[in-house]
Amino acid sequence: MELWMIVKKSLIMNLVVVPFERSLYNSVFPSIASKRGVTVPSYDEAIYNGSLLFLNSHPSIGTPFKLPQNAKYIAGYHINKDVSPLPKNLQILMDNAKDGVIYFSMGSNLLSSDMSETMRDSLLKIFSELKQTIIWKFEADLPNVPSNVHLVKWAPQASILSHPNLKLFITHGGQLSTTEAIHFGVPVVGIPVMADQHVNMRSVEIKGFGLVVTLAEDMAPRVKIAIEEILENPSYMQKAKEVSGMFHDRILPPGKELVHWVEYVVRTRGASHLRSPALGVPLYQKLYLDFIIVLITILYLLKNKIEVQLLVPRNQKCWRTKMWGAFGFYNMLHPTSNFCPR
Fold first, then answer.
1. Which three-class secondary structure state does DSSP give residue 135?
2. Catalysed reaction(s) (predicted)?
3. CA proximity to 271, closest of 281, 279, 263, 280
4. Which of 201, 221, 248 is the last residue of a domain?
5. Which residues span the domain enclosing 315?
């Protein structure tokens, strides 16, 4: 399985990601640079010439990768320390929701209004069966909406997630939404659609503060089961708060750390001392060609040695066996009776 993941990742990178990035790089940056009288390096040079790499992630969210010193985690940098107050109507709604609030949003690129009528109506039906108040980011007006469901065309997500009466976040599992859920310590039901959303939600499920539901026309009953499981089992909320604590336990807030490292690179003129020494390793060493050559040489010499031994006359073998037998080691492995004539 691990080998297949490596092969799969390599194919995706070389056949999809790198060609796309190269095309994007060549279509955007040279024209911008030429207006400033600057010539940009080729894509293949540029990708290995970065002074600093910011990762919009954190070990508490995903995998704790082995990284060089010039790669820094900054997930959460976009979240303001002082969250903006909710609009008055949402503030009253959330304050007065005696059984708590469930917030549902499929992000800014995936629109809930694009759902099929069957999917939309089945979700409204299961929401109507819940006692919680539902805030659903829905980009159109709908008739006959259940009394406990409130549709909003735009939602101040951070403000909603920070409210103490919020019980659950139903999300598509995008990187920013996942980060915000962890930042505010909210358990999630994930309905991933594409790209990194599947990876994010798999990590959430493994870490124990959310459940994943596969996107499908008939997913509504499974969404309801996941909602009820999280609401009735306090371990999900406890785990969300635990992971949130790890996310916040840093030397600096991510926004300040981002600024610090940018200024550091400027002060040190590129921070070349933080770059991985692997960038200076020759290609033949990266591919272990020197090791392979030594290994082949040893195998070749051993092969020749064995062939010579097989050509030695029988009496000579007997003599050598007796000689080594004087030390006791050879006889222990090869008794002389197997080689010498009686």
1. strand
2. glucuronate acceptor + UDP-alpha-D-glucuronate = acceptor beta-D-glucuronoside + UDP + H(+)
3. 263
4. 248
5. 284-338
